[in-house]
Amino acid sequence: MASVSMKDVASVAGVSTATVSHVLNGTRNVNDETREKVELAIKLLNYRVNSVGRTLRSGSSKIIGYVASNLSINFYMYIGRAITHVLSEAGYNIIYADSQEDPRIEKRNIQNMIQQNVDGLIIVPVNQDCSYLEQMIGDLCPCVFLARNPIGYESDAVLASNFEAVYESINLLIEKGHKNIGYMAAISNTTAIERLNGYKAALSDHNLPILDNIIKFGSGELESYKAQKLGNSYKLTGELMKNKDITALFISDGLSTVGAVNYLFTHHYHIPRDLAVITFDDAFWLSMTNPSFTVTEQDTEGLGRKSAEVLLNRIHNSENPYQVYRIPNKLIIRESC
Predict the structure, then answer these.
(1) Cα-flanking dihedrals φ and ψ of residue 128, to 5°?
(2) Exposure check for the chain: N or C terminus, fewer CB within 10 A?
């Protein structure tokens, strides 16, 4: 039988989880009627109060945990630097943790952070389903989700404008005369689906067919940069290029770009004559190749700063409604399309 969460208590009592937390921890005055509802729900559900949580929240550690899905990707390190800058100015120390796209490691990382009495968490989740975090985190500290939208956990999230960015990129390719545009992503998650929806919407708005056989998703298996050269995205690109009708390719993430570009160069594709290419995410080398690559650049500084600011606000204003914040991307047109 599944254990009862604070969210369950809040649902039965008809109040917010923050109100349940205030009743349990005495952190804010709650009127008698509401308190009685919460206490009755606790009794009916046999909810066990997390005494460790009470102890942890009794004071401030001035420590924030940054738990990223894959710190080997420069994108998350650049974001981390922006997070650190904002939080350091506010007097906080930052602990980094790498989940390596493994939910078991992610759970261990978060448990370790909580044991260190962090005042808040910024999480790039490994899985789409984040409902299990309700049991792990509960009322112990506020958290902000970054880059990937959580499912099953109510919290703030700071995300890129994925749909709009891909829509703009595909529009550009269509305007240049391309009708059969391949699509490739390293993994199917909420972010990838948002981007795929932007791809499909652009095609539909131009009355172009959506062909499942030129849409490829990888396994999301963690690979080193060296392994990526001949890894999953290299093989997916080979599968896509068997379709001789494809005249353009959209690469949905930086993880896929290394293998895809290596395949195209190794097999002597002339870009953009044989194939136009746009990638999501910019890397320093994409402007140094011949030709240089058109990219949708994510604002790592903006994502990092905003997630840190939202977390600080949540720490001091716990009852504000949760929000999803979108940070715009920038299309940088170079020579690949």
Answers:
(1) -70, -45
(2) N
pLDDT tens across 123-169, in order? 999 988 888 887 788 778 999 999 998 888 889 999 999 999 999 99
**Bridge partner residues of 184 (DSSP):** 216, 251
* Max CA distance (Å), the chain: 74
- How many other CB atoms are there within 10 angstroms of residue 333's CB atom? 12
Q: How far apart are CA 131 and CA 133, in angstroms?
A: 5
Closest CA to 46 of 11, 10, 3, 15: 3
CA dihedral angle for residue 219, residue 220, residue 224, residue 225, rounded to 10 degrees: 100
Class of CATH domain 58-159+301-327:
alpha beta
Neighbours of 136 (CB within 10 A): 15
Return the SS3 of 31: coil
- What is the sign of the dihedral through the CA atoms of 273, 275, 281 and 287? negative
Class of domain 6-49: mainly alpha
Contacts of 126 (CB under 8 A, 6+ apart): 69, 99, 101, 102, 103, 106
**CATH architecture entry for 162-297:** 3-Layer(aba) Sandwich (3.40)
- Alpha carbon 143 to chain centroid, angstroms: 13
Same fold, 58-159+301-327 and 162-297: yes
Residue 27 is encoded by which pair of tokens? 């952190």
Alpha-carbon gap, residue 327 to 306, rounded angstroms: 8
The sign of the torsion formed by the CA atoms of 336, 260, 149, 67 equals negative
Cα–Cα dist 69/145, whole Å = 11
